[in-house]
Amino acid sequence: MSRFQNVIVKAPARSYVDGLTTSDLGKPDYEKVVEQHKAYVEALKSCGVEATELQADEQYPDSVFVEDPAVLTPEFAVIANPGAESRNGEKEAIEEALKKFYDKFYHIEAPGYLDGGDVLQADDHFYIGLSERTNEEGARQLKEIVEKEGYKVDILPLKEFFHLKTGIAYLGNNNMVVAGEFIDHPAFDDYNRIVISKEDEYSANCIKVNDTVIIPSGYAETKRKIEEAGYRTLELDMSEVQKQDGGLSCLSLRF
Fold first, then answer.
1. How do residues 111-150 score in pLDDT, each as one tens digit?
2. What confidence category does residue 1 fall into, taking pLDDT thresholds of 50, 70 and 90?
3. Is there a contact between 44 and 252 (Cβ–Cβ < 8 Å)?
4. Measured between alpha carbons, how far is 160 from 119 in angstroms, rounded to an integer?
5. Catalytic: 47?
6. Is 125 a catalytic residue?
7. Alpha-carbon distance 146 to 143, whole Å?
8. Which member of 37, 47, 163, 206 is catalytic?
């Protein structure tokens, strides 16, 4: 995996507490999510990246989840077409922020829709999940784009997870963190699988940022398994993010 130099993050808006969610974990505490987001940004910076911090946008309660409007590679950016109507306008601010870093852009066009949370890159291979937020046409468009750029692609219909990256993370060196429906999925047979149990499923959404794997706090078994695989870990409290179906990967674009 190439080293990340930059991240884009966006402050949580006050309207965040009224955003979309399928979880039944209660209403988020706004002050607490602001604290957790600040700790997240500081953790990223400690991993050796420059952070571009976008201002909160009250019009879009879910816009703190900057991963969904774009898919990034070292060579080009794909502006996604988020599947939730209330989130679709978030892509404009993200594209504007990315113009500082990228010259080459592609776009997912209607009737295709796609969330970045359904896209996992593992070296030269992309995995695209079909979900409520990513349809076959959106996945087909992204497949065409990245194959043209020399990448391999698998499209995977999801059975359990909200987004593909809800239950999987790539740590480099052929090591894949897997939970739920991905534990025995044939698409991942060639990887060393770090298996996350049902009760610790939330912690499968972790992120490797240069020399550190950032994981949600409170998952001792996950921490042990990732450290045994040779990685340094850093734990963050994600309680208010989890309430809105969010995880560690959702809160940043890393490139």
1. 999 999 999 999 999 999 999 999 999 999 999 999 999 9
2. low
3. yes
4. 16
5. no
6. no
7. 5
8. 163
